[in-house]
UniProtKB/TrEMBL annotation:
The gene is LOC115468906. It comes from the Eukaryota. Keywords: Endoplasmic reticulum, Heme, Iron, Lipid metabolism, Membrane, Metal-binding, Microsome, Monooxygenase, Oxidoreductase, Transmembrane, Transmembrane helix. GO terms for cellular component: endoplasmic reticulum membrane. The chain crosses the membrane at residues 7-28. Belongs to the cytochrome P450 family. InterPro entries: Cyt_P450, Cyt_P450_CS, Cyt_P450_E_grp-I, Cyt_P450_sf, Cytochrome_P450_fam2. This is Vitamin D 25-hydroxylase. Pathway: Hormone biosynthesis; vitamin D biosynthesis. Its EC number is 1.14.14.24. The lineage of its organism: Eukaryota, Metazoa, Chordata, Craniata, Vertebrata. One of its GO terms (molecular function) is oxidoreductase activity, acting on paired donors, with incorporation or reduction of molecular oxygen, reduced flavin or flavoprotein as one donor, and incorporation of one atom of oxygen.
Amino acid sequence: MWTVGQACAALGCCALLLLFFIMVLQLLKQRHPKGFPPGPTGLPLVGNILALASEPHVYMKKQSKIHGQIFSLDLGGISAVVLNGYDVVKECLVHQSDVFADRPSLPLFEKMTKMGGLLNAKYGRCWTEHRRLATSSFRTFGYGQKSFDDKISEECMFFLDAIDTYKGKPFDPKHLITNAVSNVSNLILFGERFRYDDTDFQHMIEIFSENVELATSAWVFLYNSFPMIGILPFGKHKQLFRNADEVYNFLLSIIKRFSENRTPHFPRHYIDVYLDEMEQNKSDPGASFSTENLIFSVGELIIAGTETTTNVLRWAVLFMALYPNIQGQVQKEIDLVVEPNRQPSLEEKSRMPYLEAVLHEILRFCNVVPLGIFHATSKETVVRGYSIPKDTTVITNLYSVHYDEKYWHDPDIFYPERFLNSSGQFVKKEAFIPFSLGRRHCLGEQLARMEMFLFFSALLQRFHLHFPHGAVPNLKPKLGMTLQPYPYPICAERRQSGQSRAHC
Ligand code: HEM
Ligand SMILES: *[C@@H]1O[C@H](CO)[C@@H](O)[C@H](O)[C@H]1NC(C)=O
Ligand SMILES: *[C@@H]1O[C@H](CO)[C@@H](O)[C@H](O)[C@H]1NC(C)=O
Ligand SMILES: CC(=O)N[C@H]1CO[C@H](CO)[C@@H](O)[C@@H]1O
């Protein structure tokens, strides 16, 4: 029989051996394949994960000055390639669109959506079928309808009236903007809006967007390289999984609610279209439509639409208060083009080049999705002489494209006029890619552009925006998969004369 001491020693030895074995495995994983792009040296085991803790997009742009526009990072045994600057992003996403259209099978994504759904789906049948279905639903129930602009404008009215209730007193616009924006996507997905006081829906959005933030925490990177830490009872990944379960159950329940009273072949919204498709393809074992993928895709459409558009508008409000001259110039243009008692309409957009330039500059300058969504290679390939194996994680540093000195003069300066030519007309810029490029480019771009224009123009038509007592809030972005401003208070005062004017 062993004594307690011997048993402990034996156990200790086993533990050490195991640890050694894991380290060797990890170090083997960390070796780069031949011809792989170079990159900054990382620590054993965790690689470069720690360097990504503060501002990963800025760190990556700096590293590209040393290692080149295409370089590699070690995400704890996961070799990733980072694309920096417009030229190489275009070379990969456009000139090799097939190769770069995949998503990486990281343990986090595997656990969240089993690589199904739409946004995170592998590049294959599931993605093709879901992308086609979503694109056609967005057309049928969204911008393909003549009345859709009016529906967004109607939403604007609710939104402006809700702001009016503050009577010029300071408030944080985050919730109102989130509600208005998600009401518009909900029209397409569920055929109706949600009530502003539908707190369950708002809670779902809240914890979902918390997950967008958590997705880039060091804990989650660690989980991707060492899924074993999933058994630990603490850590941010735990919070993320709890949130994801709650979101899943909520979506399941509202999908049930909105598919009641459905008549097959007479779809009223995305859910109905999906269920029709699911029934028609029952006999096809390869078809990807399933209740689970319905839930994943609905969740992805909700969060991809809300988290981005909302944050662009929050930055827009912040910058208008920060630069009163620019705000004034936008308002002058609105007053010139739009009749006083009418809301701005999409037909008037082409006559408002300055407002367009301001919105574009906000998208360029603020980079709401700084690293896009992670891509992966669907087969082995060569870029600029470097070989990249199949299934390599690819990070598109969209921030570095929007601050690319080759394409932008003084990129650190907020300067809407860069989008205007000498006769004041709006000009498109090639290196402006907030919606990314290639097969996986944003599915909601058209909807997002409509919403941003209609909400922003209606807001500035009715209100003058300023900070309470002129106090400038923190302008640093809050980090996550998206960059958003920290919560800030704003005063919105009625502009038109004859209306009641309140003061902050
Ligand atoms: C200003 C607002 C928006 C911005 C800046 C934005 C940006 C992006 C970016 C950078 C990507 C990654 C593309 C890639 O993988 O290379 C993306 C993907 C996506 N976006 Fe958006 N987006 C916005 C609004 C929306 C809206 C309103 C919707 C829908 C309601 C939406 C739905 C999607 C979907 C489904 C994908 C994944 C596409 C795929 O994997 O095939 N987005 N978006
Ligand atoms: C969203 O829709 C609900 C229900 O129609 C409406 O009551 C609410 O005012 C809308 N929200 C906003 C911000 O307009
Ligand atoms: C400015 O752009 C508009 C529209 O693209 C074009 O018609 C016009 O000729 C341009 N003006 C100058 C001075 O380049
Ligand atoms: C993806 C897929 O197989 N879709 C098919 C489902 O069934 C309908 C009707 O039979 C076909 O038109 C689709 O092509």
